[in-house]
Amino acid sequence: MMAGCKSWRCVWYALLLLFVIVIGLLCYTPSFRCLTQENEEATVRNPADHPVLLLIWLWPFNQTFDLECCNSRFNVPSCVLTDDRDSVGKADAVLIHHRDVAWDASNLPQVPRPLQQKWIWMNFESPSNTARIPGLNNMFNISLTYRKDADISVPYGSLVPVDRRFEAFVDFVPFEKDKLVCWIVSNYRPEHRRVQYYKQLRKYVQIHVYGDLFEKRVSDEEYKDIVSSCKFYLSFENSVHKDYITEKLFNALDLGAVPIVFGPSRRNYERFVPGDAFIHVDDFPSMKALAKHLFLLNHNEALYLRYFRWRRRFRVKMSTFPEENVCQACEYIQRNRQYQVLTNLYQWFWDTSEGLDMPPSFY
Questions:
Q1: What is the pLDDT of residues 284-308, one digit of tens each?
Q2: Would you call 301 a catalytic residue per the annotation?
Q3: Do 107 and 254 reside in the same domain of the chain?
Q4: Keyword Membrane: yes or no (predicted)?
Q5: One of 38, 40, 68, 125 is an active-site residue; which one?
Q6: Could you give the number of structural domains in the chain?
């Protein structure tokens, strides 16, 4: 009976030893779970204690900028930017601008990716104007776009609160206007839905149009002068997609013109700006009805000035492309060390548009 008791104890000790070994392997081998736990702990540390090396693989649209700008311009410290491809093996993240991949995934890094390195997919074109390059699903870890549901969301512009606690409120008085409706367009294509809207609206109201195919190409300074001289500005997007609301809206707001918008739904626009800051083409059954509304506002200053009430609380902030986008990506890496992968990039970006760029029906 003593011998049986000793044998039972040996089995017990062996099982206990096996349990300790298994626990040790789970905690100290580079398993997915342990790496995730270690990385989650890193997110609560001071980012300044953990500098991030971010490699800009392709300069966005070949636009270079000061690699020291993150701290000085955007208050993102401990961010080391480089365009030296020899550092690809030690970079914490590699930022890749989709448009510059140029249809071919072979332009991406071809060396083995370090285990903890993140690849950032950056794109600020609409799905209609973005080439669907094969082989991108499961390749990237982080999305950087204008979309609000991106990992790193950088819209073309935004409204930021104005602190008026220490100054008397004064209603905004628009600049003196000598034009009713203006439009500056560089990509004029007759088949575009926005061009169809323009052609219908001009039947009822004079529209001053500028651009390569019209009066002349305008400089940045001329652009500001033109928009600020108009009561209304056609902030027409080139395609209709979720959250694709570009500088066309925010420039008009900033320069004192009321935007007439064509793009995603009014509800989508109201996620970015107050509903009484713009006019949406969908608010009217026809372009004739829209023109009638513009004439009403033109002759009723009180109604017109209601479109500027948002200025009591906000001011326009324009995003600085591409340096601000890159610096925000670096900050994201500082604070999010856990593993993730974009498994459904095609479905998420290309297959969630609000509608097609088809000619509308007019009344």
A1: 999 999 999 999 999 999 999 999 9
A2: no
A3: no
A4: yes
A5: 125
A6: 2
